[in-house]
Every structure is written in structure tokens, then in C-alpha cells.
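Give me the fold.
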Amino acid sequence: MMELNSGSYYIPKSNSKTPQGEDAHFISDNTIGVADGVGGWASQGIDSGEYSRQLMSNSLISIMEQVHFNADPMLVLRDAFINTNGQGSSTACILTLTNDKVRAVNVGDSGFIVLRRGCSVYPSPTQLHGFNYPYQLGCGIYSDRPSSADILEFKEVMSGDVIVMGTDGLFDNLYTSEIEKIIVDAEEEATSRGGKIDPNKVAQTLAEFALKKSLDPDNPTPFAEAQKENYILGKGTGGKVDDITGIVSYVS
């Protein structure tokens, strides 16, 4: 039976009004999830981080109530959405590994990639209504519902594969090639010293590198390229300051 060995790291952006940030995540055996509260609610005095944290907490409750913890990602998402009563809105991505198959649901621009021997073999698609306007679950009349989620499946997962999940703060600032290099470097370092890989440390390396790039106005990033492609005023470089969540899971 395939298992996930997962670790995570979270860097909230500096904001005295929302010191916990707006991201949330969970790890429960072979099921992982991330959520990113939509910051636009702040103009109405609403902290979307409360919504995302409730969503992830209710996801964990749903998992524990399922038989043998054999989580159905869509059922988890629906349960969590129904039981989340906070104000605001949030993206959400929930993934589970069952035998040799990854099943996931995704609403918005959080997501994951599956890497094999250091190369991406499956990147999850994002859901956008428009540039920097992701699909989002929430209490608003214009918010999306779980029925809008992408239902994703990646078969034939192999031992040694690595799953990197994150919010847009990670993927807007790091290219896939940069993520691949960090994963490969971590594996090579572990091999050279004859030790085991700590997924928490790898997640920390990813998040801290994303933070560094987010603060650099001259560094090329996926977000800056997307701005240029959408004719948004900008020079095509620079990061996006945001909350950053990374989860790294090793399949064994």
C-alpha cells in the first residue's frame, strides 16, 4: 500500500491586522489540503483567513468521519463547505492517495504538481474567472460552490514520486523548474549524508525561496509573466507578495 510522508511550511505575509495570514492547510495520513482566503474581503473589514481556517478544520472532521479514513476529496470538500459559516471566501485544494492513485479536487489557483525522478509529470490546472481572480468558495452571492471544482485524477503513482502542494503564493513566485531543482537537491543531499529526507525542511526551503523571490522586483516569476500576458502594466519581472504555504509529500 502506498503511503505519503508529508511535511509543510507556512509563511504569512506581514500584516498587523491579520497576523495569522489568510492561508490554511492540513495533513492527515494520506490526505492533504490547502486553502487561501481571498484578501479582497479586507476592504469590508472581513478576515478571509478565518474562513480558510474553518474550511480546513471542517475538512479534517469530514475525513475522520469517513470509513477507515478512506477520504473522498469531493465529499470532504462538500462537507467542509456546508459546515463553514464564516464570512469571506477561499480557494481550496484537497488530495488523497489511495493505493497507486492520486485523487483531488481543486477550486481556484492553489494546486499541486507530481514529480518523478526530479521532473514534473502532472501539474494540476488552475481555475480563474480572470487574471488574479480565482474561483473561490464562500458566503458571497458571487462565490463558487463545490460543484464548480475540478475533479482530478493521476493514476499509476510510483514509490519515490513527490507531490508538492501549495497556495498561489508558492506557485506565483516559483517556476516548476525551480521547484524541481529544490526537490532534486534535497534528495542528493540526503543521499550524500546517508540520511532521510525531512519533508518539513524541504517545504521550508521551497517557501523561503518563494518569499525571497516575492520581495525581489527584478526577479522573473510566473506571476510577472502572467501580468504581461494579460496586458497589466508592469515590466515582466518581480514577485507577488502573498501568504505562502507549501506541502511536500513523498510517496513510499
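The first strand starts at residue 4 and ends at 11.
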